[in-house]
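ERR on first pass: missing label on line 2. Operator R.T. fixed the label and resubmitted. Corrected input:
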Amino acid sequence: MGRWEPDARGRMAQAALELYLDPGYEQTTVADIAERAGVTERTFFRHFADKREVLFSGSEQFQRVVLAAIEAAPEGAPPLDAVAAGMDAAAAALQSQPDPTFPRRRAAVIAANPSLQERELLKMATLATASARALVARGAEPGEAAVAAEAAGAAFRLAFERWTTSDEPLDLRALVADGVARFRALA
Amino acid sequence: MGRWEPDARGRMAQAALELYLDPGYEQTTVADIAERAGVTERTFFRHFADKREVLFSGSEQFQRVVLAAIEAAPEGAPPLDAVAAGMDAAAAALQSQPDPTFPRRRAAVIAANPSLQERELLKMATLATASARALVARGAEPGEAAVAAEAAGAAFRLAFERWTTSDEPLDLRALVADGVARFRALA
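pass 2 clean. output:
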């Protein structure tokens, strides 16, 4: 959901994001990104399959953080508690990254492009499936695991959307916790 | 999520689905679909933007059914009750369509193609947003409306996936109701 790499990958991601905001995603080529990041196109393609993937380079690390926290949750914790701990860990990591403006600018690019929105949704759906699997590995019943993973994933998505679009600085972890509490209160 | 049109649109959708299953989505052209459905390519493009959209021709009607049921829910019904009524109406409509094998075959094509999965997720996300808006129009607090809409949408998705992949015939409405009950039981 954000940027996690401080190196050449990070430079390319920053360059891409700046260009996707101005002149725009459709108007930007891989050659433009490589030039701005000071790398060759070949280097770009060693790191990313295409210009869309630049925006999703943090997805794998995001998922690793979530799954590690699910696995580290106390034995016997209810499924929703375990997966909420995963989303909290991801929120903490996103908030503490070196460039806090990256997620917000990235979100603006994605909001403006349906094909990017689709990719973001697929990544979140993949995360929910992986989270449910991790809950089942901890002993949760599959149906309950799927529902807990969907609830926590949706809580994260709604919180993230508010966090990246708010005019004032908000605490992403608090927004996620509030969202999870709302799912718990459904009646 | 399925097929709703009995006419030329429906014929094209059937032809497309048959070809997407064999020889496959990637291998099929609009010309192939038009030929099999006995129409011109021009007719195809009057109905669908591209070969991907054929599979989503029922989305608008699906959304209309959901939103109408939300609006028709008893005054004062809790948001989750109202949106669950919407998903139940959609499940009933899907189960009673003329060709009950269509959703299952369609789901198989989508499961095999990430770009189709992405589109399906975007349609469901759009539906959740529209459902939340309909709940707010009924007087729900926006945060509660969003969570109820996400929960009911996820319950539908999980139920639909089970319904379209099960070896035995299942009752989609019962699966949706069970999923909603699981969200209510989250703690």
